């Protein structure tokens, strides 16, 4: 296992994002269609929040629906905005942060994804799944 491998080697580079003006219904469709659990919320190229599928579950019955189901009951979603539901106090990492450092951050925190930045620009996202897959590849 290489000790100095940067997070850029395992991060997702084609990041699906949301804007605060998007609907929560749109977010749920993106989660299900792309089989993902975290979506950065951006203003231009700058990240301003992170919405997780768990955030949606807290305010709805999204988990009661079939994961493959595209039709979403939006009654609850109409009561909230993405900005109200997303996490705002984010921990992020730089594109050159090592995988080991990322693993340490995720092991100590209560979240499972980190935005990866180059300056203030969002260039990727790394999740606990990315770390597990990296570990599997080492064997």
TrEMBL record:
InterPro entries: CBS_dom (IPR000644), CBS_dom_sf (IPR046342), Diverse_CBS-Domain (IPR051257). Keywords: CBS domain. SUPFAM superfamilies: CBS-domain pair (SSF54631). Residues 11-67, 86-139 form the CBS domain. CDD domains: CBS_pair_AcuB_like (cd04584). This is CBS domain-containing protein. Pfam families: CBS (PF00571).
């Amino acid at each position: 296992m290489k000790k100095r491998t940067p997070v850029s080697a395992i991060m997702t580079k084609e990041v699906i994002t949301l804007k605060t003006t998007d609907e929560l219904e749109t977010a749920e469709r993106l989660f299900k269609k792309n089989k993902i659990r975290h979506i950065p919320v951006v203003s231009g190229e700058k990240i301003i929040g992170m919405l997780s599928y768990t955030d949606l579950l807290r305010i709805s019955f999204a988990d009661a629906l079939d994961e493959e189901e595209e039709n979403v009951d939006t009654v609850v979603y109409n009561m909230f905005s993405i900005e109200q539901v997303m996490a705002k106090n984010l921990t992020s990492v730089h594109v050159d942060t090592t995988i080991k450092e990322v693993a340490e951050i995720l092991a100590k925190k209560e979240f499972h994804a980190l935005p990866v930045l180059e300056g203030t620009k969002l260039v990727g996202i790394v999740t606990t799944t990315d770390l597990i897959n990296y570990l599997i590849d080492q064997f």
